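Quick illustration for those who missed Monday's session on complexes.
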Amino acid sequence: MSTPVRPHDDFLVFGAPAIDEAEIGEVVDSLRSGWLGTGPKVARFEADFRQYKSAEFAVAVGSCTAALHLSMLAAGLAPGDEVVTTPMTFCATVNAIIHAGATPVLADVDPVSMNIDPAAIEAAISGRTRAVLIVHFAGRSCDMDGICKLCERHSLTLIEDCAHAIETTWHGQPAGTFGELGCFSFYVTKNVCTGEGGMILTANEAYAGRLKTLALHGMTKDAWKRFSDEGHRHYYVAEAGFKYNMTDIQAALGIHQLRRIEKNWQRRQSIWTRYQEALADVPATRPAAVEAETRHACHLYTLLIDEAAAGISRDAFLDGMTAENIGIGVHYLSIPEHPYYQERFSWHPDACPAARRIGRQTVSLPLSPALSDADVDDVITATRKVLGAG
Ligand SMILES: *Cc1c(COP(=O)(O)O)cnc(C)c1O
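Prediction with pyridoxal-5'-phosphate bound:
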């Protein structure tokens, strides 16, 4: 065995967050203030995020998974309703549809952009289709022209899973403001990190109010007003809600992460470009160039390892990189590869061939703004070595 590119005691962790003293100080401030739950910092983070995205309303929640679930409920989905979504996503996207009592229907992705293909959405529409749930995969905007037009034509509610797409724009418009609801993740590995956290954007005031109520047990604040001049403020439970609120400790992280969003994006973009150049000659497929008039959030840098061309299987590549002490990710095995969905919906991976191929060939290289130039060099050296490109 050759000497690994990095020593074992210096394993490069995939998706390590970049946390500064500003976040640490703000969390300490929350701890000292006694506001540990949902308080003024959540309100500030919502206002900052809303402003950053040029959105009307922002509702902070505990995760993107919670954001997606509540969005399905706010959209008024009922049992029997179908929601068309992508097979190239994290399971939370599909689970949100299931938890709302609706039925997910998959539409395959475009093999180059890896985003849901508008023509495949069109083909998946039935008399029961009520909504379309898209994912801007890796931070690359979906074809919003095609998708918005077909949603309008078929009167479908558009919901965006923007877990990868905080900085993404399409023809100048921010991702998450095309649909009636846009859902964001602040999980550890995401572009803005609060440990765990999520946000929902909407231009619909009624949705925003309902989302806030649903996120906190179904309790209404309006009910308080009726008692406001008469001593104790009772709350009313308007419906059976959830415990999906964000806390001030999470928001304390988010406020400062958001202030550095542009700097972190620039760092990731320069790493992304460095990979594109340094891996131009390896026997693997690099990401497609970024489309004109769009901004790619550079959340994931993915390579496709086709065993026939690379002489090594994807899984052997994963093992090889781990042996070089470089942490890498797989985003994602396509949704119909998972036994639960196969059993429940009789799905087969062959039904979405583009997603199946990507899911079986894809690997994500480290792309955190916390990477040093030397770390990036190590990733490139290890990738070339494992692919036999010297
Ligand atoms: C991370 C992720 C989610 C879930 O986000 P959480 O905040 O961890 O709940 C949903 N969809 C996609 C595409 C993701 O990458």
